[in-house]
Design goal:
Chain lengths: 416, 416, 416, 416
């Protein structure tokens, strides 16, 4: 069984390698291939992945190649973790919306749309090669942001894809800690859209303990999601990303002074690459944990196992709505705890309140328009998507952001 | 047949009187009674209404009373056009949201919620008396803002109510002018929520001429709705109230310098009362047209006729959604062109795009929470409604606005 | 020797009574008279002051009266600590500027101007009575905000007045604590305008230890002034009030959520009045320290001693510039450490840098225009003063603030 | 007599050539040399200048060279009109301040500081070569923005320099038009700092007609300066650049939607270069008037004549304050109408009111700190200058702007 990692030259990949190594037998991995246009990065990260997997005792073959067709050839699972334009594009995504007083963020708002617009065409081209060269019935697992929109674009084109996010697994670990239980004992109801989710139940031996958990650990939860308690006094715990909505202006103020996340990550990555030069290194460096994407490897490996073995375990994944949230179109892509067996079916109950429902509906409408803009192009579609976004919503802003998005992103926009 | 006008001491009532007078025979009006706690206002406006109706040749009895039970006794239609707290409460509604950088407006945002919170309990008390004293099967026609929320509260309590707005009739007259046709020839598809509507078709002899109309009169339409063309380049024409959404920040800037609408109306009303002192006056003064509510009387009289005769004519009314917009709950109250016959059923097609759908969903969620806050009270419910509103949406703003709404509105909030 | 306290019905007065009591002999006080239009407050606070002074062993007569002429009759010192319009006017001053996105504060910006406009005419009327009835050569000591502008208005009319602020004494106590020395050992160079001052030297036995103090206690100083260290990395320590300038927008954000200072003080005052009802109480309650004005009594009593004995001690006072800051007009009123002997002459060196100089010049220009607006009245003068204020500075804001200032303050503006 | 134009490859130079050509005899010009590092631009603009001057009948030699030393060798006047970093640096200057909610402009605020920081070191290096190679007593005439700060830096280093701006000549032409008189009949009192000036008198045959002019043409003046009348109801007419102060937030809103001035100019310049390719062209194209800098050539040529002939004519120039505005340091550089004879002495009266005085003092303090930051470098000095600027003034903004200024401008900052 072969796994291909597209964007395998990323500093993230050592995290993945730990997961592949520890689970190689359970997953039946015969081969891991890293694919990346950056051959120089592969020359460093490839051997490191090999050493890490060897450290775990895995005998799986590890390969690396800038050739996409060869890389995905015969793969059973293709993991997408690419970043079109690199950190410098991200830094621009985080900066230009601020010129209009809007939050600069790489997965939502105008910055998220910019990323979607340059990423979706690339992902769709890759998926075409996967369709042609990968093993029959191969899965595409997307970890490339904005995961919801990328997954929707893949599904719209008929690919066998599922989107993955590490927010739910982070909550599971944190809640398990607060409850003094092993993570495996804790099953979440996680509902919404990618980066717009709420934990609506925390099941321990089948019983929902979220109300008690909130009673005893209200402040710890507030710290975790970086939002005041009032925001989840209705009993539904928003993800950390909701602060871009519930705390938008404060976040804009913060970004005016603080270095952007992209600048920080660029610094961390430079340090990581220094560490990676050490050709005796055979484990992911501690520093990687500050890179973001905590537990990503665990989430990814566990999901692959379920996809390959159809074991029916619960994962938080991105998939078609198909009536689960009745106020969204069937074709919308939602993120929800789901049993991954022969089919993938939501295990959570769809219990969002009116406040969540309104916001989810508005963002889902934006995502629909955003995917259309990414696939079909055109300034007018960009404007419509931005005007639909609850963090934009105004003509002047949509117009100014459209102009800036196209001006700063032109190099990666095929139609501009 | 008797009509009762609750809030009949308003300066608006002379407009209504023109409509009643001109249609008294067609409607079969035997009696009009104005009800208002302000007996001094009734003593002026009552005789004026009488003179206006006489001028039209009507022989219907005209009465006035501060006694609600007596006023609605035996009425077939009860028209609600009251303003709890008067213009001074409105002026406060328009000011306090600005302290938080939010638009101050009497029908939407925090100002609109303030109005809903103080109005709905009063309207529900009135409706109880209507249920008890009016004729069996009497209609309540609500023109009191926010019409959508007030109508929903009435329907939730089982009243036979319909909400009325003058936005659609205004568009009909304006479009008829642009098309060079009589208003009666023009039938609109008007869809959305009260003060959050779009004209989605303009039918002339059954054919939708909106695309041509927009092609030829794009600038005139932009002027009419006070929004740039880009906002309706998708072919759906938003009402003038959408500028509080699509032009929110510009509106806030404008309000910082300009006198508020409430201050202007207070000035106009003072002038109107001066004119009303003339006991030979027998027509509504020209000045009334600057008071707002253009064509209100025509819309109201025409709607009453359809309610009483079940003639199946098309009116833009507020009623239960019941599946018309599939992304809204059945219980939501929408505003839509509808045939008013034995039943009231939408005549428009539900063709809003994703951009409109997202916004309508978000505002409908706010309205649901807002009605709950009005009926059940409590700071927490006010906060939840505000946090759900797309023009608020942030914790800090919702908290600051909640505190201010309660502080400035306390006198009219039974639970505060 | 008689002292009159105008505004003696304030909750502050028990603080003053402690100072008078402890220093009655040294000051040679024969009589203290509290003057206040609120006779009911005097009936509570008068006996309390008497009990406090008795507790200190003072035999001075304590009187109270709503009659200004009788109260100041024969007084050697008249202390002004009044608040025209009470806390409710203050609460309005703190709210209306927020509608324009400007800080709401009672001593600076549009709120401070509102207070100046209603206070200066009242103070000038009082000063006329002092001129007529007080002892020849009597001093007016002004503690009424905005102290700089009020003092300037008094001096412009030829009164023998000096302005007092408690910022400098607060710094002296705090710095003494950090240095491990008695307050009396610490002499400050305090320079600027009222509520726009910097500590430019901290003298210990004649030597300036500010550089060392900043080196060792940088964070403690930052906490004290509620500003980041970068703001005083040039070695000049701004007062706490500078955060309304250097942290303006953050302060506006804070005020949007937090209850205003006036609302807090109103709550504290209500509690204080409850405590004051106890007719065995013979000391100021601990709670008073949360009322603001810390060390005010010590500063005031010490200053009176110097005024009466011409002992040449150093106090931070408000007086004419007369060339001390060469970039300000001679008639400007500055706040500076000064020796109070037969004459009052600055003891500090005028060592502000260009950054401070620019801000001080701009605010002094505002104060000149603001005093003119207070004395001569007129919407146009209010607008000019606001346009000159560095926290306003824009036409739209000045226009919107002028309209609101006059609308909310009309009752206390003789010319409006 | 030789004139050197540093930055002679600019599209502006054809405007200058018209002036040189028309006045070659009067000025006694023997030679004009254009100096520019861009040899390709010189190859186009040099021959064009030659053709324009020939068209005027001038026989002066026209040369061009990228070699600075050779270019200024023996020159009697060296005109500086360079743009370090070109339009792309300007476009960045106009964009980055918007990320912090501050106006993006190339001569004031954070954008103006960015330009000063990269320009002053280059200008000072050029001036050193002028000192060494130009004729003894040669004048440096600076038209490079920010003119006030550049001129100050030149004077601080002992150069014989004067700064020139085209604002005053623009007013003179406009006022002459309104008055129905020839421009030469109109003499202005123009007072302030570069791009922060007011017209305080308009002399016609020695008499000040500004009050009448404002009475009759108030709206025309408001249109000219793009500011509401209230801003100059005190009788002093601010320059167009004051709208960045008096209309700051509105300007920020405008910039969020509109293309930046730099983007527009870049477009115009591209068109101009197309026109300049025509080697029969012998006059400046009409299009140049939309490039900015109207009347620049007339102002520059007239000033040179006065500098060379000491004719005592009045020009608006940048020079040392030396007590003219008593609230500014002697070393400050002001912009004022002055007689240019054997000495250059202000002809205007220093009649600014308190409102102008406060703003001028604050900006002068910023300029002092800004020149120091340009000459000596260092993040800390940049921060201090920004914190001193009235359009910044806040710690968070100064910190965020400092970081961005250095990040976007690093290539041209020798110390960063």
């Amino acid at each position: 069984m072969k796994i291909a990692v597209v964007g395998g030259g990323s500093t993230y990949t050592s995290e993945l390698a730990e997961g592949f190594g520890a689970n190689a037998a359970a997953l039946g991995i015969d081969e891991v291939v890293l694919v990346d246009p950056a051959a120089d990065k592969l020359a460093v990260i490839g051997p490191l992945v090999q050493r890490i997997m060897r450290r775990h005792g895995s005998r799986a073959r590890v390969g690396w190649t800038p050739n996409l067709d060869r890389g995905v050839d015969g793969a059973a699972v293709v993991l997408l973790q690419l970043r079109v334009g690199g950190q410098s594009a991200r830094i621009r995504d985080e900066a230009f919306p601020l010129e209009c007083g809007c939050v600069g963020q790489e997965t939502t708002g105008a910055g998220g749309l910019a990323k979607a617009l340059r990423t979706i065409p690339v992902v769709l081209r890759i998926a075409e090669r996967v369709r042609r060269f990968a093993a029959p019935g191969a899965w595409i697992v997307d970890f490339t942001n904005p995961v919801g929109m990328v997954t929707r674009a893949l599904l719209d084109e008929g690919h066998r894809a599922v989107g993955l996010c590490n927010v739910a697994i982070g909550f599971q670990r944190r809640f398990a800690g607060l409850l003094g239980r092993a993570p495996a004992d804790v099953v979440l109801d996680h509902v919404g859209l990618n980066h717009l989710t709420w934990e609506t139940a925390v099941r321990l031996d089948g019983r929902d303990v979220l109300p008690e958990l909130l009673k005893e650990h209200r402040q710890a939860v507030a710290d975790e999601v970086d939002l005041p308690e009032a925001v989840f006094a209705d009993g539904l715990v928003p993800s950390y990303y909701l602060r871009y909505f519930y705390g938008h202006d404060a976040e804009v103020e913060r970004l005016r002074t603080a270095p952007s996340r992209g600048e920080e990550v660029a610094r961390i990555e430079a340090e990581l690459w220094d560490l990676y030069q050490d050709d005796t290194l055979d484990r992911k460096p501690e520093l990687l944990s500050r890179r973001g994407g905590a537990y990503y490897s665990e989430a990814a490996v566990a999901l692959m196992r379920s996809l390959l073995t159809e074991d029916g375990a619960v994962h938080a994944v991105n998939l078609r709505n198909r009536g689960f949230l009745p106020y969204l179109p069937d074709e919308a892509v939602i993120e929800v705890s789901a049993r991954v067996g022969a089919a993938i079916t939501p295990s959570a109950r769809a219990t969002l309140g009116p406040r969540q429902r309104g916001l989810v509906s508005a963002v889902a409408a934006y995502e629909e328009l955003g995917v259309e803009a990414a696939v079909r192009g055109g300034e007018r579609r960009v404007y419509e998507a931005l005007l639909a976004h609850p963090l934009v919503g105004q003509h002047d802003l949509a117009e100014g952001l459209t102009r800036r998005l196209i001006a700063t992103g032109r190099d990666h926009l095929p139609w501009a």
